[in-house]
Specification:
With about 1050 residues, the protein is an alpha/beta fold. It is about 35% helix and about 20% strand.
């Protein structure tokens, strides 16, 4: 704009600064391009209509405004004296209506993407499309930097007044509007210090944006926005309006309340924050209601939700908060963000609520009678992932605009349905508590509770595992049942030995519910021992010889086993105990004297089959008591699904203290297949496993994902040509590992999920070689098993929304041995079943349903984890570490690196300044914990970070990337001329003394407005057209210098190859 055409220059409002940044960051995205579209019917005087717009532009400085920022300390808005109306006409007469609509959609989309050159006024366009001689489409596009929604009808009404006057040869006298710069001046007088105190207190303790929790599975790369709308009925709308009037609430409060409740349900958090758009028009500014410009502001709305609160008092408190924040609604959002505890690189919130209380249709029509203005609609794209707009009327309209990169169409459809359900319930029964408000539609609830849990299969309910084995012995007595090294037993031989042991155990008093300990290395004796215990009617308690004596001692004492099966070589390692010891190697001569026939016992399918100990949060392991009935269901389902045959060979390599070993043993032996037992310790030797699988022609094997990763890196995989099914469970299966598996092996891969408390596995998924999913699901429930994903109030969560996974069905364990308190806590009454004494098991696992009924595993609700297939209570490790005399405080977490490799990390606060010797601590733990529970990394801190309520803030623990570098960041000065220039700019803009080349711009206090300033300085310094997003992609000096060097090199190559390019600033496509 030339100097002689400049009428005024003044600063931007905070909202304008934010919009300018986002427009520069995504210049071709259409962000903040607003379109008002309407249909005109009647005799339109096009010349008068065009002149009316020109007169309106002449009248309002904001419509003649452009924005400049290059090489300026702060951006400015510049008002031109004369700006011509940008007018375009198209004639679509003679084109079919359906094609007209297609053309309109394309034209509007193209117009949005076209955007505006923000430094050139006017930042608006007008398009008139003639459809017939008396009907038109009219589109007014403008940048949101100029006007807010309240200003739009003011402008349009003024255009119609001018149009009416021009048509009647009358010049209407309109009062000169108060200029927008008066509002800017008012803003500059406001006290930001008071606002800072208010917002810091308001947002205290809030450290991360409230997650919407329903991001789509496969994100698209295209930056596409879409909208969906629902219209509430006359009845519901009237009921909401009546409720608001009776309780002295605004309709806006009801909408915000419903959105807060939805966020609570979706995020699982009881303290949520979303953005609320406020009018921003200060009542102290005279005639502010008739001013035009960008007055609105978006402010954080923090809502705390106690499920037991009554609805109306909660809504009244919400409205009081709105009123309280109104006096500070001038606060710049970028400053509020800086005053909060949310890091700069994260957004303050991910959704905003807009209450569009400025109806256009009726007010426009009142101004003109010979031209019918209908179907007025608008489109605007914000930079937020999701915008909820409420448009009041006789039928309340709810519109959600969303980024297709983040959300898919079915998710938004469900979301609108949930909002309607909430608002309907609020209007119908305002006296209820928040927890009583429904979210799901009846159809959704039936799908989640009934349809996806129809897993009934008629399996024999009275059978015991050893009885199924005995039936198989009758069918294939001479087939090889089990192989270990150079030894083997047929089904008849194995049955005979197990029978002899069973008779011996019965003589010693073993009967149903008798717990028998077994501490044996992997061998033929182990299989004989397990079967012998079951045939005697007892239940086995596996004690891994690799466990520390202290842990085995606890299990023996807790289980009070009267008998312990073991091997002579292990006697010296066993702790002191009171059980009668039977050594299956040296005592066998005595056992062979007993009856070789199948013994009789009174055991039923309701009796215990085993007690397997898992990690416990109190520092002591807990024993899960499982029954024959649950395991039979699990194994019969497995046979139905995978169809093991006598030609199959199954590798038994899982430690028998881990529940996967149960199916390795017994699925094989009830189907006539061959069980091949790996040597002790062999399950950790990938080279040995490759050789064993090849030599024994193994067809079926189990791996925890961590071991599968190691196995796939071993040479000789091509020799495992008989392998046809690999079953994974024990921890999350990474997508990258699945893909690597299919690239290397010609076999099926199955991902199973389940806890020890529910007969090993409860869901299953067959992995797909070319799956587009970015993760591996855990699938659907197995036979006679139900899965419920519930929120904190025990209600089903919607599809896509995380919740705690609960299990129902015949596979549930009886509970925990000697722990009735914990049993009652974890095994709860079944709220969705009519059966007496039916229960659910609370897994503590976080999961969500996918749209087709499959389940995605998301991790632990608490701090219990699965690592390399072992379930670990981090609290147990913390408890043991804290027993060391030199440790004052400890926190243990699982840290994942970029390769998805997980490590246990212990953060320690020593009792004194004396240096803690890690080697000594590690030795201390080796005597008390299994090796898989000993942390890989120890980080010593002066104090643990705490949350405002005094709890340990695990999210604030420093990243323990000790494998790459020391935890303390080393200062690295700039090395090259580019880095020195960048460092000087960083230091100047951020007001620092010095900066390391590895320091992150945003971690140092940078934000979006300062980023705009830095990029402007960089463009000037390097004579390059650097996109604003470059700083976000490369926020360190080292990274940015590398990008600039690459651009310079590309520019040099282009210059050499083309004489057309002129010297000066160049724009390179990155």
């Amino acid at each position: 704009m030339r100097a002689k055409n400049i009428e005024d220059v003044y600063p931007l409002s905070p909202m304008q600064q934010g919009m300018l940044f986002h427009s520069l960051y995504e210049p071709t995205s259409g962000t903040y391009i607003t379109q008002l579209i309407c249909d005109l019917h009647g005799q339109l005087n096009i010349s008068a209509f065009t002149q009316a717009w020109q007169q309106t532009i002449n009248q309002h400085p904001v419509l003649r405004t452009a924005f400049v920022w290059e090489n300026l300390e702060k951006p400015l808005q510049v008002v031109g004296q004369k700006v011509n109306v940008p007018w375009e006409e198209q004639d679509w007469r003679g084109i079919l209506p359906i094609e007209q609509q297609e053309r309109l959609d394309t034209l509007l989309d193209t117009d949005r993407k076209r955007g505006f050159e923000l430094s050139k006024a006017p930042l608006m366009r007008l398009i008139l499309i003639r459809l017939t001689d008396t009907s038109y489409h009219f589109a007014w596009s403008h940048h949101h930097l100029l006007l807010d929604g309240w200003s739009v009808p003011i402008i349009f009404l003024e255009v119609l007044v001018h149009y009416k006057g021009l048509c009647q040869c009358d010049r209407p006298i309109l009062k000169s509007p108060r200029p927008y710069r008066d509002y800017i001046a008012w803003l500059q007088q406001q006290n930001l210090t008071e606002a800072q105190v208010f917002w810091q207190e308001k947002l205290k303790g809030f450290t991360a944006p409230t997650p919407l929790g329903v991001d789509q599975i496969t994100r698209t790369q295209e930056d596409i926005h879409a909208e969906q709308t629902i219209q509430l009925s006359l009845t519901i709308t009237a009921a909401l309006q009546s409720l608001a009037q009776q309780q002295h609430l605004t309709l806006n409060t009801l909408i915000q309340g419903a959105w807060a409740l939805l966020l609570k349900k979706y995020s699982g958090q009881e303290d949520v924050v979303f953005g609320a758009t406020v009018s921003g028009r200060p009542s102290t500014l005279e005639n502010v209601e008739s001013m035009v410009g960008l007055f609105i502001n978006t402010l954080p709305m923090r809502v705390k939700i106690d499920a037991f609160d009554s609805l109306i008092p909660w809504l009244q408190l919400l409205q009081e908060q709105q009123v309280e924040s109104r006096q500070y609604e001038y606060s710049p959002l970028v400053e509020i963000h800086g005053w909060s505890q949310v890091p700069r690189h994260l957004p303050l919130f991910e959704s905003i609520v807009v209450f569009e209380n400025y109806p256009i249709d009726a007010s426009l029509q009142e101004q003109i009678t010979d031209l019918n203005i209908v179907k007025v609609r608008s489109f605007e794209k914000t930079n937020f992932p999701l915008t909820l707009s409420a448009i009041p009327g006789s039928e309340l309209v709810l519109k959600i605009a969303y980024k297709c990169q983040r959300f898919d169409q079915p998710t938004i459809t469900r979301m609108l349905g949930h909002l309607e359900t909430l608002l309907t319930a609020i209007a119908a029964n305002p006296d209820q508590r928040l927890l009583e408000l429904p979210l799901l539609t009846p159809k959704e609830e039936n799908q989640l509770l009934v349809e996806w849990n129809q897993t009934q299969v008629d399996y024999p309910q009275q059978s015991c595992i050893h009885q199924l084995f005995e039936q198989q012995v009758e069918l294939t007595p001479d087939a090889i049942a089990v192989v270990f090294e150079n030894e083997q037993l047929t089904y008849r031989e194995l049955n005979t030995k197990a029978n002899q042991l069973a008779h011996y155990l019965q003589k010693l008093g073993v009967k149903p519910e008798t717990l028998v300990g077994i501490c044996i290395e992997r061998s033929l004796e182990m299989v004989v021992g397990l079967l012998g215990i079951l045939k005697a009617g007892g239940a086995y308690v596996p004690l891994d010889p690799a466990y520390p004596p202290e842990r085995i001692a606890f299990m023996l004492a807790d289980a009070q086993v009267p008998i312990l099966l073991t091997q002579t070589s292990l006697l010296e390692t066993l702790p002191t105990h009171s059980a009668q010891v039977i050594c299956l190697d040296t005592d066998w001569d005595k056992i062979t004297l007993y009856n070789p026939q199948n013994p009789q016992s009174s055991v039923t399918s309701e009796n215990l089959i085993y007690v397997i100990y898992t990690s416990g949060s109190t520092g002591k392991p807990k024993g899960a008591m499982n029954t024959h009935k649950g395991l039979c269901n699990r194994l019969l389902w497995m046979q139905d699904t995978y169809n093991l045959t006598p030609q199959d060979r199954v590798l038994q390599k899982t430690p028998f203290s881990f529940d996967v070993s149960v199916w390795e043993f017994f699925w094989t032996l009830i189907t006539g297949a061959k069980l091949v037992i790996a040597q002790p310790g062999g399950h950790q030797d990938s080279a040995y496993l490759v050789q064993l699988i090849a030599r024994e022609q193994i067809t079926t094997v189990h791996f925890v994902p961590a071991m599968l990763q190691v196995f796939l890196e071993e040479s000789g995989l091509e020799t495992c040509r008989f392998l046809k099914r690999v079953i994974c469970s024990g921890e999350a299966l990474p997508k990258t590992l699945q893909d690597r598996f299919f690239a290397l092996l010609d076999a099926d891969l199955h991902n199973l999920y389940g806890p020890t408390e529910a007969a090993i596995d409860v869901t299953f998924w067959q992995c797909q070689p070319h799956s587009q999913l970015p993760f591996v699901p855990i699938g659907r429930p197995i036979s006679n098993t139900q899965i419920y994903i519930l929120d904190g109030q025990g209600k089903p969560t919607p599809v896509g929304v995380p919740g705690e996974l609960h299990i129902g069905g015949v596979g549930l364990a009886r509970g925990y041995l000697n722990r009735p308190d914990l049993t009652n806590e974890k095994f709860i009454p079944h709220p969705f079943s009519q059966e007496l004494d039916s229960r659910l098991y609370k897994t503590g696992d976080l999961a969500r349903y996918l749209s087709h009924g499959d389940i995605e595993y998301l991790g632990r609700v608490d701090y219990q984890v699965k690592l390399r297939g072992f379930r670990i209570e981090l609290g147990e490790i913390e408890s043991v570490i804290s027993q060391h005399p030199d440790i004052r405080e400890v926190v243990v977490i699982v840290h994942s690196d970029q390769a998805d490799f997980q490590r246990l990390v212990a953060y320690l606060v020593p009792r004194s300044e004396q240096k803690l010797i890690i080697a000594e601590l590690r030795h201390f733990l080796e005597l008390r914990l299994p090796d898989y529970m000993i942390p890989n990394v120890f980080v010593i801190l002066e104090a643990l970070p705490l949350t405002p309520n005094g709890k340990v803030n695990r999210k604030a623990l420093p990243i323990a990337d000790t494998f790459l570098r020391d935890s303390e960041v080393v200062f690295v000065p700039p090395r090259t001329s580019i880095e020195k220039t960048l460092a000087a700019i960083y230091v100047d803009v951020l007001k620092l003394e010095k900066v390391s080349i590895h320091d992150n711009f945003f971690a140092l206090g940078g934000h979006s407005l300062l980023a705009t300033k830095v990029i402007s300085r960089l463009r000037e310094a390097f004579n390059l057209e650097l996109p604003l997003r470059t700083l976000f992609e490369r926020p360190t000096i080292a990274g940015l210098a590398e990008r600039i060097e690459t651009m310079r090199l590309a520019l040099t190559q282009v210059s050499r190859s083309s004489s057309i390019i002129q010297p000066g600033r160049k724009e390179i496509e990155l």
